[in-house]
Design a protein that fits this description.
The chain is of the alpha+beta class. The chain is built from 18 helices and 21 strands. Strand 18 and strand 19 form a beta hairpin. The chain is elongated, with a radius of gyration of 28 Å.
């Protein structure tokens, strides 16, 4: 059932005479008595009116519609005939559907003149908009049943299968563009697929999404959820969005198997974090650097070795942790709790030993996580920062100036370790993580308490036997092991001047002007 038919069904049910869909205005139903009413509370943007028109226009008229901006045709729905007229004014589309009554098999309807549309502002960029599925009004009317998510969608199955066949980490689908996959860090087009039409994408997105996620997408024009792709033996972290062209989505592959710490290359000091009785452990790095993977590996070690209660708060749930030695409860923001801070506040009443916060986004979440760690729980969390020392600054700077000294004292007591990581392209294919590890020794805790963070790198260099490692040292080690090219490491390092100096000390010269290793 075309999305436009859902609106037309209300014309039939209410005995309406005409439906008017104009860009950036609310859909209007004109009744036979001259009255008019809005079918939706929100206006439809240009791209959605284009999508609705594109679903019902006959193939023979598509070229005319695109070239001349006008088209007229008959459209039947449930034994009723509509004359649909399409036109454009300053690139803004207009749909007028006139109800003609019961379908007639012989008589040809005389075309009426095309009504000149009310001038509409041509938007510089189409604002975020409701999906056509939101066109289903509240009033009772016959509607097409929602697609069965358990059965998937043929196009989605093909896309997900092609993504895994290419060993891709992310799938990108954008309206009017062919699908792309991120393979070993590079974006590549998936073969065998043409440009994706907005209507096709919307149909697939509705079939794949959970009811809660689809409703969120309709209302707010973006949504996050996890999709279990059984045929591929994995889960997908999915994000829906709407841009100036139309709907789109991005999927990230999450293996069903918990990551192996050996394959990830986690050093022993990082693995031993699972044995901590209390405190705050942060895993940081830019988006897509593998923070969730590292945290999942550490939590799995705790699940195997301990006999405790693990509680996770995620958005959405990514790696699924079955019960091993520990009882594991996994809660999803949006589905099981309103926000990270609400879930974390409730966690204190749920008798956890280990709490994992998927993302510490705001001041209140950070404050509650600190209090939870100080009161005797082991708290794992993530932040989007580029270095371990930058993480401490980021946390302190979140708070007002009159509270920052108190937060430094709390951090010095609660913080146990910061793992900062970044992903690099591996020689021969694949990607590998470089880890900077800051373990909070008494000397470093005192520096945090006194606000002397600039002295922490020197303290880390003298405490390597405790597991301290700077990012530059990790990058140089990967270069010496022939796992990463020098220029790749240079591009990803946060402090480029000290990186060059570290390379020279290690005997690894390279020409920055050419991006190649010197002969």
């Amino acid at each position: 059932m075309a999305q436009l038919d859902r609106l037309l069904s209300h014309v039939i049910a209410k005995g309406g005479a005409r439906l008017r869909l104009e860009a950036d205005k609310k859909p209007r139903l004109e009744l036979k008595n001259g009255e008019a009413l809005d079918l939706l509370p929100n206006p439809l943007p240009t791209v959605m009116v284009e999508v609705l028109a594109g679903e019902v226009i006959p193939e023979a008229l598509k070229a005319t519609w695109q070239k001349d901006g006008k088209a007229e045709f008959e459209h039947d729905l449930s034994g009723q005939t509509f004359v649909i007229r399409l036109s454009r004014y300053m690139e803004a589309p207009l749909i007028i559907a006139e109800h003609q009554g019961p379908a007639r098999s012989q008589a040809r309807l005389s075309p009426a003149p095309v009504t000149a549309p009310t001038p509409a502002p041509a938007p510089a960029a189409v604002s975020a908009a409701a999906s056509p599925s939101k066109a289903a009004p509240v009033a009772p009317a016959p509607q097409a049943p929602r697609p069965d998510r358990s059965q998937g969608h043929p196009l989605a199955e093909r896309l997900f299968s092609a993504l895994l066949a290419q060993q891709g980490s992310d799938l990108h689908c954008t309206s009017l563009e062919p699908p792309l996959a991120r393979v070993h860090g590079d974006m590549k087009e998936l073969e065998g697929f043409g440009p994706l039409q907005p209507a096709t994408l919307l149909e697939m997105m509705e079939a794949v999404a959970t009811p809660t996620a689809w409703q969120h997408f309709q209302e707010r024009h973006d949504a996050d959820f996890a999709y279990a792709y059984e045929a591929g033996g994995c889960r997908l972290r999915v994000n829906y969005f709407l841009d100036r062209v139309g709907p789109g989505l991005v999927c990230r592959v999450i293996p069903n198997a918990i990551p192996d710490p050996d394959k990830l290359g986690l050093p022993d000091p990082v693995r031993r974090l699972c044995d901590l009785a209390k405190g705050l452990v942060l895993v940081t790095g830019p988006t897509g650097s593998g923070k969730s993977t590292t945290l999942a590996a550490i939590l799995d070690l705790a699940n195997q070795k301990r006999r405790d209660h693990i509680l996770t708060i995620e958005d959405p749930i990514e790696f699924v942790h079955p019960r091993k030695g520990c009882l594991v409860n996994q809660r999803e923001v949006g589905a099981h709790t309103d926000s990270f801070k609400n879930g974390l506040r409730a966690a204190l009443r749920e008798d956890p030993d280990i709490v994992m916060v998927g993302e510490m986004r705001d001041l209140e979440t950070i404050a509650i996580a600190l209090e939870t760690a100080i009161t005797g729980h082991l708290v794992f969390g993530t932040l989007h920062t580029s270095s371990a020392i930058g993480t401490i600054d980021r946390i302190v700077d979140q708070f007002p100036a009159d509270r920052q000294q108190q937060i430094r004292v709390m951090l010095a007591d609660a913080l146990k370790c910061v793992v900062s990581q970044t992903l690099l392209k591996k020689i021969g294919g694949g990607r590998i993580a470089a880890l900077e590890t800051l373990f909070i020794s008494p000397a470093i805790a005192n520096l945090i308490r006194e606000g002397k963070n600039f002295q922490i790198p020197s303290a880390m260099q003298t405490g390597r036997s405790y597991g301290q490692r700077l990012m530059n040292d990790a990058l140089v080690e990967l270069i010496k092991d022939k796992k990463v090219e020098p220029m790749e490491a240079y591009l990803k390092c946060p402090d480029k001047e000290s990186f060059i100096a570290a390379c020279k000390r290690a005997g690894i010269p390279f020409d920055l002007r050419l991006g190649e290793v010197e002969a």
